[in-house]
Amino acid sequence: MKPMTLREKIGHMIMTGFNSEEVTPEILQLIDEYKVSNIILFSYNLNNRKQIAELCRELNNRICLSTGYPGMIATDQEGGVVTRLPEESPCIPGAMLIGATGKKEYAYEAGKITGAELKALGINMDLAPVLDINSNPGNPVIGARAYSGDGKTVKEYGVAMMRGLLEKGVAATAKHFPGHGDTSVDSHLGLPVVEKGLEELMEQELIPFQSAIKNGIPCIMTSHILFPKLEEKKLPATMSKSILTGLLRDKLGFQGVIITDCLEMGAIKDNYKTTEGAVKAVKAGAELLCISHTPELVIKAIEKIEEAVLSGEIPMEQIDRAVDDILKLKEKYQIEANNGKSKNAIRKDENTKDAKQIIKEIALSGITWLSDAKLPEITPDTIFLGSFAYRSTLASSIADSGLHFAKYMAEKMNCSYLNVSINPDIDERTRILQEVKGYSRVVYGLYNGHLNKGQIELANEISRSGQKILGITLRNPYDLAFLDKAILKMAAYEYNTTVFDALVKILKKQEEPRGKLPVELTKV
């Protein structure tokens, strides 16, 4: 690397974001004065493909001009519930729907589709794939973001998606090390604890990460989770030297870039403070620090790290290694300056159409029928019930407030529909029971009913009243474990028009549901 000041070096170790579709004065200050050279983009930054390409071009050019090196422009394009790109882009299904297809080649295709789109728009890092094993049905933050509750499946599908991303020139990032799947607390809001030792983790949670490392994953994201049997001090994995250096570096042999999950999440901010957490994360072995939202915290964190280096608390050699690793990553996955000006910067429409066709195939292949009886006949005297989707975790993308499952399906199937609250109380359930009388069948789209038990109560009450009912889960399939045996059951995993259109084809018996449930249905 060329000679740099300490401030310049630390700037390469920061990833941050901003709340606008245009470059803001605050982000320019961080780039120019503090040499921050890595940006994370969220849905609120990304309106349409032309705007995204221009935004990324402007950011990358400014970073190149200010630091002399290309930028890393990242986003969380996992697919499914964590989708940052606009609808006009080919947006892949989420991990659990892909896992339900039984075809790991679909995970590879999903990686290629995502990588091609991101690179064309000027984004060269995807904070995916999720390698968490969703072994806890009550997990409030992972759920359908995981491929499966089985380590072998997560390993195969996660590595396949990783390969697709890398093939298209995008830096894949495995997350959330050493595993967020067996938690009951969302680390955006609190501090989860996993009471597992190394032997247990090696037999389950670490299987996908070991495989990803063996297959050349360039980046791994840390989790804000306490592992008391790995770290004696009350420090989460993000801030634990025994986990990041002792386990990830020394034992598992990872040589790429260690990136933190956002240090503004509740698990860090509320228990350790973001700026102190940043210093501890560097001391533990983290190299790229994600402080996603607040410029003042970015500046304070940079100053705190600078002080820690100058005082000898953090060795300069550790900073130099981190910067060297990050610059190597940028060199390998760089986007050329001025990307976005040429007509070729955005993929041709026919390529997008091909990608969207593959996405439709994946959705059809993943929807899962879970009853012994045959698919029911949907006649005009069927009524559809459902709620609007909601943002159940801060990791989720903001739900489309204009899309309503029951209304959409009723219009496509020439039926009636009713809107139901996300957690209907006894008065609402009593009213709905009266309103659905006289219909030959009820189709209820459940959305996290295991967390909103009023949905489960309503479905079971309809069934116990003697009416035929089909329950379709539109996010986590665990809702089905709570439904009475008499209720027909289907898992669709996602709440979007691609999945709804696939359901229409299945309910019209134009297609067969071909998926297989990738997790065990147990009650929370």
Question: If you had to describe this structure to a student in words, what would you say it looks like?
Answer:
The chain has 524 residues and is α/β, with parallel strands linked by helices. The chain folds into 2 domains: 11-345, TIM Barrel (Alpha-Beta Barrel); 367-507, Rossmann fold, CATH 3.40.50.1700. The chain is built from 18 helices and 14 strands. The chain has helices at 6-11, 25-34, 49-67, 95-100, 104-121, 151-167, 198-203, 206-214, 241-251, 266-269, 274-284, 295-310, 316-333, 349-366, 405-413, 426-435, 453-464, 497-507, and strands at residues 14-16, 38-41, 72-75, 125-126, 171-177, 219-222, 257-259, 289-290, 368-369, 382-386, 416-419, 441-446, 468-473, 488-491. The strands form 2 sheets. The protein has an 8-stranded parallel β-sheet with strand order 7-6-5-4-3-2-1-8, with helices on both faces. α5 (104-121) runs parallel beside α6 and α14 (349-366) crosses α18. Mean pLDDT is 93; it is low at 339-344.
Summarize the helices and strands and which ones pair or pack.
Layout: H1 6-11, E1 14-16, H2 25-34, E2 38-41, H3 49-67, E3 72-75, H4 95-100, H5 104-121, E4 125-126, H6 151-167, E5 171-177, H7 198-203, H8 206-214, E6 219-222, H9 241-251, E7 257-259, H10 266-269, H11 274-284, E8 289-290, H12 295-310, H13 316-333, H14 349-366, E9 368-369, E10 382-386, H15 405-413, E11 416-419, H16 426-435, E12 441-446, H17 453-464, E13 468-473, E14 488-491, H18 497-507
Parallel strand pairs: 1-2, 1-8, 2-3, 3-4, 4-5, 5-6, 6-7, 10-11, 10-12, 12-13, 13-14
Antiparallel strand pairs: 9-14
